[in-house]
Each structure stands twice: as structure tokens, then as C-alpha cells.
What we know:
The chain has helices at 2-62, 66-80, 108-111, 152-179, and strands at residues 83-88, 93-96, 115-119, 129-138, 141-151. By secondary structure, it is an alpha+beta fold. Strand 4 and strand 5 form a beta hairpin. Helix 1 (2-62) packs antiparallel against helix 2 (66-80) and helix 1 packs antiparallel against helix 4.
Amino acid sequence: MKNKIWQKYFLCMAVIIVVAGVLINIFGYRLACNSYEKEHRRRLQDESRQISVEYVRESRNTGLTSEMFRQQLRSVRNMIGCEVWIVSQDGTILMSTESDLEGGYVPQSVLDRNWNRKTKIEGLYDGRRGLAVDSVLSGTDIWGYVVVSEDWNLVTADAKKLLFRIDMTALVFLVAGGIM
């Protein structure tokens, strides 16, 4: 008799663990991905705005050479872990932390929006990118754009790692609760 009660108890706990795991994955994945992507979006937009204000406008006013400015952009890239492009008014990449992109073209439809999620740009990238765009103004005229770019596949992979940690924590709590 005692054996059957314990078997039923463990069977019920196994069903609860499986159902909880499925629910966490269904709802948790979207929640984790959305919040993680939203945080990355905010960070990229803040960085593009800061680069636009502090680096591009100041370099124009102080007369930095293009090589000195390129060094500053590479330092920024190393700090934030994203690519930075300086784009002309017509969409030509004038300067980039990745020198092989210089001379490439960014479509006006991308530059017109301050955020582009999961964007593919023909001739530049095959994969999906998150792009934050900020205008560089000279008075009221647009002089060009600062684009901060991040591989969105890496952001999604990080969100999945976060969900895996949540799954493992929930599993530990469920198993510990079942044992007690």
C-alpha cells in the first residue's frame, strides 16, 4: 500500500515538473527575450545618441584628424561591444569600426527610423542586426548619421541562455520541494 502512494506521489511530482517546465518555456521565453531585447535596444539607442553628441559633433568642432577619430570609435566599440558607423546624408558609410564596411551603403529607409530590429542590409550583412540610428545635426540640417550595430543572433542566444538558467532554477526548486 505504501509503495503505491509513493509511486503516485512521484508520478504527480513528475507531471507537475513537466507542466511547469512547459509553461516556463512558453511564457518565459517570450518574456525573457522581449525584456532582454528591449534592454539592448535602449542601450544601443543611448550609445548612438551619446556618440552623435559627444564624439561626432565635438570632433567637427575640435578638428580631430580622421585617424584620431577612427581610434576613438574603435575604443568605443571595445567598450560597448558593438560596431559603430558614421554614415553620410546619402547613406554611404564614411567611417566604420570595421574598415571593410567603409564605402558600403545603408538604405534611407533604415536611416529614417531610429531603431531597426532584425535588419538585413544587402551587401553589408547576411545576418540579422539591431541598428540604432541617430542624426548628426548642423543647426537644423542633417549632416549625417551615427549607426550602432549589433548582431541580433547573439542577443537572441543570450536570451536563450537566460531562459535556460531560469529553467534550471525552477527545476531545482521543484525537485527540492518534491523531496521535502
